[in-house]
Amino acid sequence: MTDHKLLISEQREGMEGEIVISPEVMEIIIGIAASKVEGVYSMQGSLASNVHEWLGRKVSHDKGVSLSQDEDGNLIVDLYCYVRYGVSVPKVAIAMQNAVKQQVRNMTDFELKEVNIHVVGMVPDSETELPTGEFSTLTKEEEE
């Protein structure tokens, strides 16, 4: 972000002062909303955040979230996530976009210009049987 604070709104009638929300708080709101969508396995984190989780330390709710502003000051969100094997990726992505936009609007009065979803991987559930033999890279001659 170019600016380290985001104003929630203009000064409201009859009120003095301003309400300021840090980008970190916005990223947490966005991260929690996105990760609660059915079909999302997890958000992509950094090596450090993943190690902290493996060690049983605090879960970072802002992982996989990149918040920026365009030249007009509009908010743009990029989300990096893993989805569960077998889900409809477009449906999960659209549900993530809707959930994030709604939660940000409800909690901050901000409208997001863009919510871009980057699916970086797919994770099978432990009981999911992956297809075998259907997707051979060998030609018929090579198999024989």
From TrEMBL:
Family that this chain belongs to: Belongs to the asp23 family.
Organism per entry: Catellicoccus marimammalium M35/04/3
Entry-linked Pfam families: Asp23 (PF03780)
Protein name per the record: Alkaline shock protein
